[in-house]
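Please check this:
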Amino acid sequence: MPASVNVSMSKRVLCTIDTCGPGGAETIFLQLLKRLDREVYSPHVVMNGKGWLYDEVVKLGLQPEIVRMGGSFNVSYLLRIVRIIKRNKIDLIHSHLFGSNLYCSIAGFLQRIPVISTFHGTVDSNPNGRMIPLKFGFINSGSKYIVFVSNYLKNYYFKHTTVSRKK
């Protein structure tokens, strides 16, 4: 079957991450993109800026879209993610790190698109942090699956946050 037919039949996946690396989360993000079966998935990458990870993603033949997240809750960022989802007819969202997990969970919920939220560390998840229960409420509601890169991390989140154990 010609590649153009495969691409049109593939699931369009939005891949997002908060940072530009290099680091552990960024390396995993890159490895997932490298190993993504392009006959099944057509990735659209959104990043917070240029840097090491951006350059590495470009080497894979992808053109990441830069969308600046900013500090506290950024409605403009959320609306841009929703527009990207609509414009690219996204079928699945795979987000990495807390900020992307939060925004993509809300966007996925609004657009009725499944979200896989991946946590790589405990940064931004301080149980005494600002509106953490509300943020995890959004992540729990909008994520179809929640992934932790280690059992230690999973146990930490189960102990210190309201993250869903079912997902």
The longest helix spans residues 98-111. The helical segments are 3-9, 24-35, 52-59, 75-87, 98-111, 132-142, 151-160. The CA atoms of residues 25 and 120 lie 6 Å apart. The radius of gyration is 15 Å.
